[in-house]
Amino acid sequence: MIEIDNLSKTYGERRILRHCSLSVNRGETLVVIGASGSGKSTLLRMIIGLATPDDGTILVDGQDVHALAPAELSRLRRRMGYLFQSGALINWLTVRDNVALPLVERGKTVDSEIDDRVERALRNVGLSGTEKLMPSQLSGGMRKRAGLARSLVTDPEIILYDEPTTGLDPVTAHIIDQLVVELRAKLGVTSVVVSHDMEGVYRVADRVAMLYDGRIIATGTPGEFRDAGDPIVRQFVSGALDGPLGDRSAGPRPKSASPPNREEEGAPPQGSPNKE
Amino acid sequence: MKWMNRMLEGAGYAMDVACRSVGYMFRRPRLAMTARLAYDYGLKSLPVVLVVAFFSGMILSLQIGIQLAANGQEELLGIVVAQTFAREFGPFMTCIILVGTAVSAFAAEIGTMKVSEEIDALEVMSIDPVGYVAAPRILALTAMTFFLTLCADAVGMLGGGIVAVTQLGLPWQVYMDRALTTLEGREWFGLPKDLYAGLLKAGITGFVIASIGCAQGLRAQGGALGVGRSVRRAVISSIVLILVISYVLTWFAYRAFAS
């Protein structure tokens, strides 16, 4: 359903993505993991056309996202939902009006149905009773959940989640993960999730891809990632301090100690000099 | 060259925002939101407009009046104050005040929405931010500029009249008769020229500065620093354009279409 081919992106001097290729099947939940600043959110923004790649293509249902006319892109986006890291609620609208906004703007839904759908979406994310509150009256986690309700209210075919459980308490994070799983199971929603939360990754993912140094260095099932032999992947999923990703407590790694790049050197990383 | 490119890019984007906003004003006017914005950014600016206009009228009347009285021509004071306010002072002063109270607020508010991903969220929902955020603000400010300029004209003339009576000993009736006669005297397309040329100037300028504020907000990037930069650019561009537009429209009204 989503085909990412040879995608590259540079911000100023910094190369965020280098020749990334990835595909997401219809009804699948793909989780993209990687260190902060590795380009996961940029990848997600490019899938929905909020950022433009320097090179490469993204096809959604065979349509090249970055070659579409504005009206066609708008039609495509109506089939998609996007959860922003901060929730991105419109600050002068109540929670109810924020969640109802996409339905109201499309203008094809009667008021009573809008109310029902808003109420259901808020209940699904555990925010019943907050309809009249303003975004400034919500905690960070509540804002994120209201943003998720807004993404769900239009029943999209594809949902892109930018760190859906970051900043949430463990129980609420579990509820959100459960919701992602249910959406796939009941409605066949295709999801791309960007996350750091490995417990959540194991709960929701059909497949996992890891971004490192601007490239997709590994893809596989959650089980394969849990038992990964690759030292970079293993260190990331375990959260260990020692390894090729660097001992963060000892400050930034010298450039010469960075792990070998598989695509450039044609062989998997052989472990870290710091490895015990 | 880099700054020139950036300036032209900004001007082009502001024109794009302005043109698309006009389209949205007819296609989907969002009247409730426009009314709320007109109250927040227009009506709430009324007290400061009235105070500034009143004192400006008093200062103008005193300065000119002293010179006119020295030549025994103080009876002309009503004409001078009325024409100055209707043609230039009213629109100019109102627009400068609105740069401080509304245009900077537009740039800050929309800029904050941009850096906190609210504008992106609108795009993802297939809602054009120009239609949803910019067009109602531009319509509200344009409409309120007419109203505030009319108020500034009236209160400026009132302030001038009070000084004429209390400081220069001119009878109120003489001052007002001269002021109103000069405004009614000249017609432009069947309407009092000085008044309508000034109001037209105010409306056009209000539309332009509101578009600049919204466009600068929509181009903000880079967190709080970027929002501050957008506000600064919006204020500087607006003040410069108020003067340029004022000159060009004065030329059109009193040279090209002189009557």
Features:
heterodimer, A: 276 residues, alpha/beta, four-stranded antiparallel sheet, 10 helices, 10 strands, disordered C terminus, B: 259 residues, mainly alpha, two-stranded antiparallel sheet, 9 helices
Describe the structure.
Chain A is α/β, with parallel strands linked by helices and 276 residues long. Chain A contains ten helices and ten strands. Chain A has helices at residues 40-47, 70-77, 95-106, 111-124, 140-152, 170-187, 198-204, 222-226, 231-238, 262-265, and strands spanning 2-11, 14-24, 29-34, 55-60, 63-64, 80-83, 158-162, 190-194, 207-212, 215-220. Chain A has a six-stranded mixed β-sheet. A four-stranded antiparallel β-sheet of chain A has the order 2-1-4-5, covered by helices on one side. In chain A, strand 1 (2-11) and strand 2 form a beta hairpin. The relative contact order of chain A is 0.15. Residues 248-276 of chain A have low confidence and may be disordered. Chain B is an all-alpha fold. Chain B has one domain. In chain B, 85% of the residues lie in helices and 2% in strands. Chain B is built from nine helices and two strands, in the order H-H-H-H-H-H-H-E-E-H-H. Chain B has helices at residues 2-27, 31-42, 46-70, 77-115, 118-124, 129-166, 172-185, 193-218, 223-256, and strands spanning 187-188, 191-192. In chain B, strands 1-2 form a two-stranded antiparallel ribbon. In chain B, helix 1 (2-27) crosses helix 6 (129-166), helix 4 crosses helix 7 and helix 6 (129-166) crosses helix 8. Chain B is elongated, with a radius of gyration of 20 Å. The mean pLDDT of chain B is 91. Chain A binds chain B through residues 45, 48, 50, 74-75, 77-78, 80-82, 84-86, 88-91, 101-102, 105-106, 147, 150, and chain B through 112-113, 116-118, 120-127, 132.
Quaternary arrangement of the chains shown? heterodimer
Q: What form of chain A results from the Cα inertia axes?
A: globular
Shape, principal axes of CA atoms of chain B = elongated
Work out the helicity level of chain B.
over 70%
Largest contact between chains: A-B, 23 and 14 residues
Sheet of most strands of chain B: 2 strands, antiparallel
Strand order of the largest sheet of chain A: 6-7-8-3-9-10
Summarize model confidence as the mean pLDDT of chain B.
91
Work out the helicity level of chain A.
25-40%
Radius of gyration of chain A (CA) equals 20 Å
How many separate domains make up the residues of chain B? 1
Structural class of chain A: alpha/beta
Number of strands of chain B: 2
Strand content of chain A: 15-25%
SSE arrangement of chain A, N to C? EEEHEEHEHHHEHEHEEHHH
Strand content of chain B: under 5%
Query: What is the terminal separation of chain B in angstroms?
Result: 44 Å
Radius of gyration of chain B: 20 Å
End-to-end span of chain A in angstroms? 43 Å
